[in-house]
Amino acid sequence: MSRGNVWTLALVLAGCIWRGLWLSAGVADRTSVADTTRAELLNQVNDAWTQNRNLPRSTDWNDVQVLAFFTDATASPRPVAGSSKWQLESVQRFDPDAAVWIVSGPDGKPGWDGWDDNQDGTVDDLGELGAAWSDDHCLTPLDPDFEQLDPSNARIINRGTFVLSDKQTFMAERSGSLTDASNLSKQPRWRWTFSDQAASVAR
């Protein structure tokens, strides 16, 4: 058996032992907390909007992602049901045409500063953006620095990301009054972000 195979076998064995210890320790499955939070927040929104006749009762929420942020990360999870302390921060829509850009990091150079990362004979050209373990990073329309993006020093690496939208657009799409064929054909997905105000109120 080669040395490489021995190391591979050792890593697999170590992973199995670690997983066994994890399961035997009885670590709680917190996925249920996230699922409960999402369901309760969407139920609260659905009840409020259907009562005001802003949405039909048959509204489908399956394509709505929920990001819920606790203002106090050290606090133990609180019950979500019946809470009025959650605040809707943003409504976002998935746009398959929105560009995802990659830009240089704090060193201001594509890839590693002073290195010819792609071995093309030119040091720090745009082709080196995104070099492994460099400080380059992605920007999307939701990032606070997106307005300062310089396309001449960046490049598009993908299309399809979330962009800022609003409740009116969501309600129009759900009620069927949004007649833009291009939007309907793309079957937009939605993301709602909430923040828990309970911790800040308690202070």
TrEMBL record:
UniProt entry keywords in alphabetical sequence: Membrane, Transmembrane
Protein name according to UniProt: Transmembrane protein
Species of provenance: Rhodopirellula islandica
